[in-house]
Amino acid sequence: MNKIVVIGGVAAGLKAAAKARRGDPQASITVLERGKLISYGACGMPYYVGGDVNDIEDLMKTPVGIVRSSAFFKNVKDLDVLIQTEATAIDRQAKVVTVKKLATGETDTIPYDKLVIATGASPIKPPLPGVALDNIFSLWHPDDAKMIRQGIEAGNFKHAVIIGAGLVGMEMAEALTKRQLQVTVVEMKEQIFPAFLDAEIAGIASKYAVAKGITLLTEEKVERFTGETRVTAVETDKRTIPADLVILAIGARPNVELAKTAGLTIGVTGAIVVDEEMRTNDPDIYAGGDCVENINRLSGQKVFAPMGSTANKHGRVIGENLCGGHVKFKGVLNTVVAKLHNLTVGKTGLSERDAKQLGYDYITAMVAGHDKPHYMPGAKPITVKLIAEVQTGKVLGMQAVGEGEVAKRVDVVAAVLTLGGTIDDLFDIDLSYAPPYNSPIDNVAVAANAVMNKLAGKFKGISPLVAKEKLENGKTVFLDVRTPDEWKQIRLSDSPNIKYIPLGQLRNRVAELNKQDEVVAFCKISLRGYDAEGILEGAGFENVKVMEGGIVSWPFS
Amino acid sequence: MNKIVVIGGVAAGLKAAAKARRGDPQASITVLERGKLISYGACGMPYYVGGDVNDIEDLMKTPVGIVRSSAFFKNVKDLDVLIQTEATAIDRQAKVVTVKKLATGETDTIPYDKLVIATGASPIKPPLPGVALDNIFSLWHPDDAKMIRQGIEAGNFKHAVIIGAGLVGMEMAEALTKRQLQVTVVEMKEQIFPAFLDAEIAGIASKYAVAKGITLLTEEKVERFTGETRVTAVETDKRTIPADLVILAIGARPNVELAKTAGLTIGVTGAIVVDEEMRTNDPDIYAGGDCVENINRLSGQKVFAPMGSTANKHGRVIGENLCGGHVKFKGVLNTVVAKLHNLTVGKTGLSERDAKQLGYDYITAMVAGHDKPHYMPGAKPITVKLIAEVQTGKVLGMQAVGEGEVAKRVDVVAAVLTLGGTIDDLFDIDLSYAPPYNSPIDNVAVAANAVMNKLAGKFKGISPLVAKEKLENGKTVFLDVRTPDEWKQIRLSDSPNIKYIPLGQLRNRVAELNKQDEVVAFCKISLRGYDAEGILEGAGFENVKVMEGGIVSWPFS
Q: Which residues pair with B480 in a beta bridge?
């Protein structure tokens, strides 16, 4: 009888165990979990804090309300799940795991034929003065979430400071602003979502966050936390911020001590190295979930990218291979999506920053547009940035942001990336079309077309980052071609370099512009800006550009 | 100077013309449109009738409210759009189009170097007695939509009969039930959406439509319409249905008379034949939009599949090629999506019916599940059916239905189909994951996994159609493993062949079942049904099956 031992009972571990049970009904399968809880939906915690989820228990239940307890797993999956049981050592020669019962302090040994390490990751706690004060939390365990919510509901928290503007940090910024707290996010890097968004897309999200009342402090470093027993302030290199609640969200580190001590190989990312079959350098030991490193399918680089979705895929692969399978996990695209009130940001594949670092000869295009026909109720704009390789047209990455439907577009591009598709392939996809769901030409197809037009020299788009420099240097004429109503409502800036001619009048008023000038045309989304480029080029202008994404995508306030 | 003439000014024609202008600023480009309106969002008409869109003019305007008139296209795109101007003949030798000014009856000739035929399609009017009575409409032109809506708002219509349960028919069924009309849909075939959905998926949608108050009459043939001047009843081969409003929605025919008379090749589908560059058999004449036939990328078969999305792609390809390009249109996947109140149905690629007809050795799996984690507000179930080739694992098609997010999943599979991906590729895609948008394992990945498990013999799923036969033949034990609460709320049927044992008790109550019996396990979505299969097989049962999709996907009332 095959003896399978799994260390870790949250996502990858239990998935592997359940899958192995289907492959081998006779095996003895033991899952060791040092905590009290197993199989909980950790990613749901910000939504519990924010109030979308009423009961923390919901994160631990099946859809019909059964708690995923040890008894449940025994009963339904025939798995022996031992909670409050920490694996303290692995003897690879003897093939034995030493465990400690945390409730009693007893130790024991459990023999294995095949071992799975799914020890997860832990939040990084910065070694700063005062970090141990009360009311400084990482949102890592349901107990954290419960204490934060209880504090909010008891009226103890008014001023929250979130350290780190990544996924968890910004999700918590939403949650806490929904709870009427004053929220300040402090980020060392120069933008929010620094790990995956390019600056101009992050800028759109920042502008939105600020409009929702979130204070964003970038390029700012926390130096200490002050207070008697409870935190009362966060001191940065620039200021002191009053705080009665602090959320540490500066990332996580893989839990690799056990593996490392057992002599398993740890990679450049600090996580456990596994091969395509999720096997460590010991052929009888698999590892998966947040404690292992992944390969980025596009760059081929090793990455530490802990995600619940990836952990579940690992679990399936390990479960199959524990029973003699040879299933491969081919890697990740570093896809992410995040909600910030009614805004969604998403990304898949390489960012422009990644593409540059990797030495690609790449081209980008950014387009804005409604997520369905403008005449439909609820149509909202989104901005899509596409990155492709110049010579092959291969899609390298995509980012999107907006109040409209972003996740669908990210997922379509993720599918194209998985199969190595080009911008032509992306344009060609017969995507579902009906007015409640989409425009006849989907936003990603518009973006693909913009890349094609740029490659063909027909569309001379520039990013808002470049546009801003040009606007400030004063040598370029900016041409706003919107309607008088739009012009009244909002302006790109009050710069005297902006000339206003509605598109409908442009053909007759071309003489007001100088053919020798560099002209940057734009409108709300810059589709009319592109028409303006056509009109001016037709009239003999030779240095006309379009500000990609238009006013909707202008990332500056 | 290149003289380009385009016949048809709705979707493909104007897109081709605008694109050609970008490629050739000097060309003379004339667009001939026999109607008064150009470039309108025809697909939005059901939403105008239903009240989602307030003003029919919105379908003819740009997002900032500018009417897309001839003057607009002249001004912005430098196109000469002649409305109420019908092309009556093409002289391919002389390269001249004869036109008739419909307002005055005058005729004229217009020479061309390159011609584009984008004459669209027309609704099929059945040659039945009484079809010319008042208040019998096709929803084809904005004037139809206006008259229907005016009649509704004047209180003239109470009993609507819709002929045809395809896309337009069912969209109108939604629109008219929203307007509080009594709606009956009469369909000759045995199911709704007969052209693209398999029976069990259509059944789920039918059940929903009936619950929304729509009367569905399938396998029923309209024989005549009766009334004095206005229609008062629809007579079918089975009954007489009182009606004060009739919508004809039995499909469309391509407008090919002009092309045919000019000697251009018409295909097996009745539409104009074009090559990959959208060129007819005359090298100077292109054709696109609803008047041409397309190729299905999967089957290689010619299809007549008029869609606004496809027409726009055609327009782009033609526009590029008019200016010396060699861009190819590679075909369609017959992707569709439709909204029926809060339900969405969608499909891409081949249906099971198609796969069977084409002689594929295929496998299907149907899975149900929430569209995001069950603990998130607004999580709703969807049912996904996946069709794949047995030997290669190549994905052939997908259908989905439910109140949850369907369009995203359809589009992801459309991307995989475009690139020839397999079920492994589909499972592997690093789709965006965060609780507001998705579960860690997306519904399409669950479906891909179900196909893999079926191929490996681990999951013995049967479709609800097969299950129903087994339930009725009485030789099979159906095993419902839901919770007592669920059992109280709803039953699959009152058949005595259904045995009820909650999953949590199954391991201890196995003796109540007979190992010799065929057992079909199920639950709400049949995930616990699959667990039950595991428990029973572990206990030595050899003939256990799972009813795919569970009660959520049961297509029978």
A: B500, B522
Quote the tokens at residue B165: 């349960």
Q: Which long-range contacts (CB under 8 A, 24 or more apart) does B503-507 make?
A: B503/A75, B503/A76, B503/B528, B503/B531, B503/B532, B503/B535, B504/A66, B504/A72, B504/A75, B504/A76, B506/B481, B506/B532, B506/B535, B506/B536, B507/A75, B507/A78, B507/B535, B507/B539
Check: CB of residue A247 under 8 Å from CB of residue A169.
yes
Long-range contacts of A484-489 (CB under 8 A, 24+ apart): A485/B64, A485/B65, A486/A523, A486/A524, A486/B64
d(CA B255, CA B120): 6
C-beta atoms of B309 and A433 within 8 A: yes
- CB–CB of B114/B282 below 8 Å? no
Does residue A319 carry a pLDDT above 90? yes
In whole angstroms, give the CA distance from residue B140 to residue B45: 8
3-state secondary structure A311-360: HHHHHHHHHHHHCCCCCCCCCECCCEEEEECCEEEEEEECCHHHHHHCCC
Whole-number average pLDDT of chain B: 97
- Whole-prediction pTM value? 0.97
Closest CA to B349 of B420, B289, B293: B420
* Tokens at B274, concatenated: 């074009």
3-state secondary structure of A210: helix
Nearest to B426 by CA among A411, A423, A312: A411
The tens digit of pLDDT for each residue in B169-199 reads: 999 999 999 999 999 999 999 999 999 999 9
- Whether A32 and A86 have beta carbons less than 8 Å apart is answered as yes
Terminal CA-to-CA distance of chain B, rounded, Å?
66
Q: What percent of chain B has pLDDT over 70?
A: 100
d(CA B460, CA B454) in angstroms, rounded, equals 6
The span from the CA of A21 to the CA of A9, in Å, is 15
**For residue A188, which phi and psi values (nearest 5 degrees)?**
-65, -40
**pLDDT, tens only, A112-160:** 999 999 999 999 999 999 999 999 999 999 999 999 999 999 999 999 9
List CB contacts of B119: < 8 A, sequence separation 6 or more.
B7, B8, B87, B254, B255, B256, B258, B259, B289, B291
Cα separation of A384 and A403, whole Å?
Answer: 12
Window 244-273 of B, Cβ < 8 Å to A: none
Strand ranges (E), B262-416: 285-287, 294-295, 302-303, 336-340, 343-349, 362-370, 381-389, 395-402
A311: distance to nearest CA of chain B, Å? 9
Q: Looking at beta carbons, which residues of chain A come within 8 Å of B336?
A: 432, 434
State the nearest Cα–Cα gap between B284 and chain A, in angstroms. 24
The Cα-based distances of B383 to B156, B523, B524 in angstroms read 39, 14, 12
Residue B100's DSSP bridge partners are B86, B107
Rounded Cα–Cα distance for residues A379 and A371 (Å): 6
Q: Do B503 and A308 touch (CB under 8 A)?
A: no
Residue A115: enclosing H or E segment and its boundaries?
strand A114-117
Output the six-digit token pair for A456.
Answer: 């063909």
- Phi (first) and psi of residue B254, to 5 degrees: -65, 145
CB contact under 8 Å between B64 and A440, yes or no, is no
Domains within chain B, CATH numbers bracketed: 3-121+253-322 (3.50.50.60), 136-250 (3.50.50.60), 342-455 (3.30.390.30), 461-553 (3.40.250.10)
What pLDDT, on the 0 to 100 scale, is given for residue B556? 94
Which residues 308-347 of A are in CB contact (within 8 Å) with B? 308-313, 316, 329-339, 344, 346
Rounded to an integer, the average pLDDT of A198-227 is 98
A76, B437: Cβ pair inside 8 Å? no
In A190-266, the DSSP E strands lie at 215-218, 222-226, 233-236, 240-242, 245-248, 252-254
CA A549 to chain centre: 22
Q: Give the pair of three-digit tokens for residue A545.
A: 């550009």
